[in-house]
Design a protein that fits this description.
This protein is of the alpha/beta class and 252 residues long. It folds into 2 domains: 126 residues, 3-Layer(aba) Sandwich (Rossmann fold), CATH 3.40.50; 112 residues, NAD(P)-binding Rossmann-like Domain (Rossmann fold, 3-Layer(aba) Sandwich). The protein is 27% helix and 21% strand. The chain has 7 helices and 12 strands.
């Protein structure tokens, strides 16, 4: 079975590892290209967009793709929407592997907003020390609020100057742990955190650290994605593909 995996998440990598040595599957992994120097997977892979819905539809047909698994980041709404449209046109079954949102727990001081413009406005007029754990593509709205100090953590060094003059930059690749993020927030005297509701374990430490320190978190809700079939675990994807061996049975 020829399978296209739209990746960029830990769950996508787990799925790839399970399909790599199974002769029943001919899988290819597609990275969006947001992260530089991704770890080469054990299957054929590609980097970059497809050229919109039409380009993805052509790819599905030209490559004889039989199934598509959308395991992109929960905020990759455009790619997910393109996958829904292209799969419908090409009559290719699609399943989304979508991690659960983070649960709001006792002690959390979340200010929930719908987008990054609203997140920047939620910081208020008075100067604050802000930790931005949202990725490089969403920094621009905060440039209109230069009264704040911004601590920015990115996976890769930026190729161009940040749109936030005077911001302090940390380049680090997760997963991060509670102890490390707690020290980070304390040492930089952060008094508010901005995060996107990515779900998963890799970036949750900053939310836990903010809870322990009693700091407010401006939490950006996930973007809306058109209705699609979706599951929450790699095991469910394997069942959908007809794989008869679940991750738990192989120690994953």
């Amino acid at each position: 079975m020829r399978v296209l995996i739209l990746g960029g998440t830990t769950e996508a990598n787990q799925l790839v590892a399970l399909l790599a040595n199974d002769p029943r599957f001919d899988a290819v992994l597609s990275y969006a290209g947001r992260t530089e120097r991704p770890t080469p997977p054990p299957i054929p892979w590609r980097v970059g967009g497809f050229g919109g819905v039409d380009g993805l539809t052509k790819y599905l047909r030209d490559q004889n793709i039989a199934r598509v698994v959308d395991a992109t980041h929960p905020f990759a709404a455009q790619m997910s929407a393109h996958a829904i449209a292209a799969c419908a046109i090409a009559s290719v079954p699609l399943l989304a592997l979508e991690r659960l949102p983070w649960p709001r727990m006792a002690g959390d001081r979340w200010i929930e907003v719908d987008d990054f413009v609203a997140a920047a406005e939620a910081l208020g007029a008075s100067p604050r020390r802000v930790f931005l754990g949202i990725g490089r593509m969403q920094l621009a709205p905060f440039a209109s609020h230069p009264q704040h100090f911004y601590l920015v953590r990115l996976v890769d060094p930026p190729r161009a100057p940040l749109p936030l003059p005077g911001a302090e930059l940390i380049v680090a690749r997760g997963p991060f742990d509670l102890a490390g993020d707690r020290v980070l927030l304390v040492n930089h005297r952060i008094d508010i955190v901005v995060a996107r509701d990515a779900g998963g374990d890799g970036a949750f430490a900053k939310i836990e650290a903010a809870r322990e320190l009693g700091l407010p978190v401006v939490m950006v809700r996930r973007p809306l994605i058109p209705a699609r079939d979706k599951v929450e675990t790699v095991g469910e994807v394997l069942r959908w593909l007809g794989h008869d061996e679940l991750p738990a049975e192989r120690g994953v």
